[in-house]
């Protein structure tokens, strides 16, 4: 959207084109946006470069170049030290048949399936509640947003402590009501749920704020009209809020899926991928392959595989959005 | 708000507009809603409170769960942190890095945004699309080649290795361009008639008028640098260069059962971000919200 918009904009300030006498006169009075003389044009080009290069050079060197360099590396066997050895698509073949890859993708999908409904339903409920006229609304929004600005490492640390199997406060409280709390991050079966819980706590406020902005963009007269038609609370939610909010919902789901596939910090800090690989996600696997096993080719192939999966998922969502997203 | 306007409507003389429909339900669900949201906020806030409580309860985790209201406050965990670990050093490292990266991102992003908003040239749309595309590239794909690049440039275990890849922000360019597009072009025109060049129009007219967007970007850049983990983990090796998140992560091995010390570290790492957030809450929330809508 923004890109196409800017593609149009170069045509916009046509002050330099002598379309009318008035415009020409204006140009004569003030040097126009794009000057016409040769020295003027050189100076203009230099200005553009001066303003653009400080961001263009780092982006080209440290994002675009490494992106393709990773693709090249993924076709080689390489331990980061000795010369690369061309292996073609062997790395990809190896990954696709490796149970560790399957487990990493399986764990990542487990994470997404647990995390996404939790933050979306929770965030929507909160956004609806905090969009209503209730006291201390801004303060409450602030409290819910607080975990968003906290670092993953701190969140992971704090949740490891809250969910400590023996002296953690959650199991203590569960004990008070006669429940025997699980081993949380120390138990292979509970490691992923622990990570999901901590992640949902951190991201809830972010989803809430985005949905809140979407809710506030819905014209009030639609609700008035629905009320006049006798629509109750549920049917207004179902027939006004839901369709009008669908672009925002779409955005939240796309972003959450992209971030969900790239989950790493909280896994690294909470479980390190353990116990016994029970919470090893794809990026953890990339990290281990690179810095523990020095298999840069395999690691690059896995990261490209992840990128392609994310890209495919996003493209499928984009293609499918017409079925349910209502752009009005 | 809506209620008031309806009251006004119905008090107007003339045919009464069916006042039956919207009176009930409201009073009954509202207290329940408020109660639910407040309880939820308490649950959300509890981990922060518990972090603070634990940090002033010595021996937490070794012996037992700390009490919610400690018998006495003890700063021993903080003393331990600053005496026996390079925590002060690490905090300053993080602060310095965050300030430098934020400053660089503000500079490079606002300059690029000015081009995309004010200085047309052939192919500008394509260049802008490339900028946006870099936002979609996951850090994880870049990790291996970027590490090799930094190693070849001898920037491993060097702050430049952290700063260089994050000195430009496509998100920042996008955010500021949107803001600059809403600054009226007549203002530039007027300045140009007065003989001002682009540097002056940029610095004296456009930048001051996109203050809120700059504040948003400041918070976001600072936050992402202050909290950054994966890339600093890859690049920084020496203990004296480490940043706060790295130190916290490695403390887990050192203080496995001394939760009071670890929570004290967490409190210190939360505080600066909390201060900035409280200061700029309005902008942060607006900024997040504006990224969500077309």
Can you describe what's shown?
- The complex is a heterodimer of chains A (328) and B (294).
- Chain A is mainly alpha-helical.
- Chain A folds into two domains: 19-73, no CATH class; 93-324, MetI-like (MetI-like fold, Orthogonal Bundle), CATH 1.10.3720.10.
- Chain A has 14 helices and two strands.
- Chain A has helices at residues 2-8, 21-29, 38-73, 90-97, 99-131, 137-145, 152-162, 169-176, 188-216, 220-228, 233-261, 265-270, 282-291, 296-324, and strands at residues 76-77, 85-86.
- Chain A has a two-stranded antiparallel sheet.
- Chain B starts with a helix and ends with a helix.
- Helix content of chain B is 72%, strand content 0%.
- Chain B is mainly α and 294 residues long.
- The longest helix of chain B has 34 residues, at 259-292.
- Chain B is globular and about 70 Å long.
- Chain B has one domain: Orthogonal Bundle (MetI-like fold).
- Chains A and B meet through helix 1, helix 3, helix 5, helix 6 and helix 7 of A and helix 2, helix 4, helix 5, helix 6 and helix 8 of B.
